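ok so heres the complex, three chains, lmk if somethin looks off
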Amino acid sequence: MAANDPLSIGILVIMYFGDVVFAVSGALTAARYRMDVLGFVLIGTITGIGGGTIRDLLLGRPVWWTQDPTELILCVAAALITFFVSPGENNRRRGMVWADALGLAAFAVVGCHIALAFGAPFVVAVFMGMITATGGGLLRDVITNTQPMILCGQLYATTALVGSLTYATLAYLAVPGLMAETAAFLAAFSLRAAAIVFDIRMGPPGEFLRIGASKDSTSE
Amino acid sequence: MAANDPLSIGILVIMYFGDVVFAVSGALTAARYRMDVLGFVLIGTITGIGGGTIRDLLLGRPVWWTQDPTELILCVAAALITFFVSPGENNRRRGMVWADALGLAAFAVVGCHIALAFGAPFVVAVFMGMITATGGGLLRDVITNTQPMILCGQLYATTALVGSLTYATLAYLAVPGLMAETAAFLAAFSLRAAAIVFDIRMGPPGEFLRIGASKDSTSE
Amino acid sequence: MAANDPLSIGILVIMYFGDVVFAVSGALTAARYRMDVLGFVLIGTITGIGGGTIRDLLLGRPVWWTQDPTELILCVAAALITFFVSPGENNRRRGMVWADALGLAAFAVVGCHIALAFGAPFVVAVFMGMITATGGGLLRDVITNTQPMILCGQLYATTALVGSLTYATLAYLAVPGLMAETAAFLAAFSLRAAAIVFDIRMGPPGEFLRIGASKDSTSE
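and the predicted structre for the whole thing:
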């Protein structure tokens, strides 16, 4: 793979899709705390572009949206629409979970690709893919004073890690860009899908993995 | 406006004033949690220079106080004095709210100016003005484990947004520096003043704006 | 002191030791919240390298572990081992406190040295030493939604400050590197040791310092 190749159109589309999905997810969190319109915009935007921002700061890259604010505006618009449309939450819940899964998989691939293209070592690039996919949600949870979802036993950050690791491995093996992107995306998404459908969870020491709900499910 | 013009003396004075005011506000938060002297200094300093620090990190500018620690020292001193003087909180409460409003308006203008001078796009510069004005308080609330004030319905971040947007617009229209600064500062400050006097709040979806207190005011 | 001298072998060893100790400390926090294996790894890693990361971001240095991931891998390994070994917490508690004290002292010296070598002013370098030593623990507490330990009256951040200040002063006085490092390390460590043994605490306004436990010790 030539790491400097631009992202394929397919991934770009899914990336914008991911921005919108995460921004809406942040805005719905703002709704739960009965925040005002600016709260919707801030939390939505931070959730949408926060992960990539942390990645760029750590890598020493220019933070991309300070130079081309397209995605910033996209997130603001998505959060505003969420505020004024004010969806019936239960109704949209199911759809959100699946859209979020698509965004998570896309961001893991995108983040890992950007880190590799920037010359980051293998291990670091894998880490950056995971941070890109989960950092926005982490900031959202920290700011709204919530126990971070990525740390609560959902098979969530793990799926981002799998997508990022798959992509970095395929890129290392010189698999062509589009094929590597697709394979890594599908790996992450299908694992997350399995986790949603079969309620796969990871547990504390002594309970590495669990499938199916148990009574003391304290996580979000 | 030539964006590279240095800030006018008036704004510089108000900027230092803003540092002190926000540092004292952070130190008073430390007092509420009965922290020790280092807690006063850390929370005070983070509140005073945190917003500008986030702005500089995002823009890729050198973080200014790591090269010229004047404002760092100013914040430390203000927090130390707050610890040892230990003001009767109720007594100073009213004064703090108004001083904070001055700092908020000043930081919004300063932050937007710095971002424009650094070459940031219009939308990004407006965002940076808001971040400069509210980022320190956000960090303060996150670290002390408090629901962030800027997200709790006070007409607070909104006034920073108005100041920043006004300044960027006037600068775009080539209004001379001093005039643009003054107009934007007054726009932000008078809106905040109106919000304090008339208790204007913004609400969750379905309750965009509210004037005068209601019973379920859960915010700070 | 020639600020560009590499760190002495002794300090390097203690620095790696500090990474491991802080990573284990973060992993034990993850254990308290019954997190899964990825939670152990994330919180452990953030605790281990978070302080140095904040320092590098603020100084505008490249974040070191994005270029040489040795310490990143070290922290991941330490957190993984903690997950699978799952130590009896009470048993290890005493050892952890002392190991943590060693890491705190080492990181304060290392952080101050790196900042001075990068050309930071005296005051800023002292601040950076304290941030390097305490920033990882601060991020750990913010992410796990805990009242930050460094702000709860333990003589903790203060000892980092003492170590950092001692090192910067000795470096300013041109004391040779090894001697300055050792003296500053011992100053910080012995103060922390005294705080542990004699239960020295700092209090809110009106109670600057206290030795020996009192009834209302609410801190961790």
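quick notes: Residues 9-211 of chain B form one domain. thats all i got rn
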